[in-house]
Write a structure and sequence with these properties.
Layout: H1 4-17, E1 23-26, H2 44-66, E2 71-74, H3 89-93, H4 100-115
Parallel strand pairs: 1-2
């Protein structure tokens, strides 16, 4: 999930092999005390914990809808409560300070919003 190109390659392979996806479980995640970035330049916790899941899910949505009872399960964390229902979108794209649990909570809050 650290490289959206690898997610795209995976989705392309799934689309070639299968006509439907019955269940997708998004559970990949990282918690890092170091400031790191994905191959596309996103802060790594946001990229891995949310953007990868978002891209994977939306890329496979047609196959999930093609299933008789397709399901998506997104795992998150109670740490999402640390953001208290507020996202500063600039904070997601720029990393002026690095507060490990706040950044992790932001990524997990994005999971909750995407699920809803």
């Amino acid at each position: 999930m650290n490289d959206l190109n690898s997610v795209k390659d995976f989705c392309d392979e799934i689309k070639q092999k299968f006509t439907h996806v019955d269940m997708l479980i998004n559970n990949a995640g990282i918690l890092s005390s170091e400031k790191k970035y994905t191959k596309q330049g996103h802060e790594s916790m946001f990229g891995v914990n949310h953007l990868g899941h978002f891209f994977l899910t939306t890329s496979l949505m047609d196959l999930i809808k093609a299933s008789h009872q397709g399901r998506i399960i997104n795992l998150s964390s109670d740490v999402h409560r640390i953001v208290k229902g507020h996202i500063d979108f600039e904070e997601l794209t720029q990393v002026p300070t690095f507060e490990t649990f706040r950044r992790y909570g932001l990524s997990k809050y994005c999971n909750v919003l995407f699920t809803r």
